Amino acid sequence: MTTKxxxxxxxxxxxxxxxxxxxxxxxxxxxxTAAALAMxxxxxxxxxxxxxxxxxxxxxxxxDKKISMCLKYNISITETEYKNPFLLHAxxxxxxxxxxxxxxxxxxxxAILNHTTGRPDMSLLEKIIFVSDYIEPNRSQAPNxxxxxxxxxxxxxxxxxxxxxxxxxxxxxxxCEIDPMTQKTYDYYKKEYA
Length: 194
Ligand code: DGI
Ligand code: FE
Ligand code: FE
Hints:
This protein is mostly helical. It contains 11 helices and no strands. The longest helix has 21 residues, at 21-41. It is globular, with a radius of gyration of 16 Å. Helix content is 66%, strand content 0%. The protein has helices at 8-18, 21-41, 45-54, 63-72, 79-83, 88-99, 106-113, 124-135, 145-152, 156-172, 180-193. The protein has a domain at 8-142: Orthogonal Bundle (Hypothetical protein af1432), CATH 1.10.3210.10.
């Protein structure tokens, strides 16, 4: 893989071809929402836009291929990820952001890497991407969505905690496995902000 650095416009064009239409719409929604939150919280707007555009860049790769790519590029796979390969789109996405899209900003790479499970002590950019992923305009399913959308622009940490709480509640009703990091992130922010 070659490493070239691309502008937001170029990334948008490439991403449109690698994602299905719905995922592309979601991606644009996350990118614009992240840019708006960056304005509100004085984060770098361009970095938020790029991180938003790339956060799901590995989402439309088949699960088998996600695993084979991780093996090929020496990306470690946890037991939970083996059982829920969709989780790998975050790790693989951050790898592709570096190697395919030439992103060398560590904060952007981390924002992509941690966008699904979060992590304790996230940077402002990581929080912005995590929250934008949940509230972008094309989302409609989550409970408390209009409240969380408003809170996101008032107190991002409170919004983060509400999202983590609702996500865990939702996952507990599902027959799927909860990644230890999702739980760890929730425990950390519950202690920090509740
Ligand atoms: O890729 P997106 O759909 O835009 O968003 P995402 O990467 O945050 O993935 C969202 C899904 O991930 C959502 O249905 C909740 C789920 N999720 C978050 N943490 C975990 C999880 N799923 C499992 N199995 N385990 C987790 O710990
Ligand atoms: Fe995702
Ligand atoms: Fe997403």
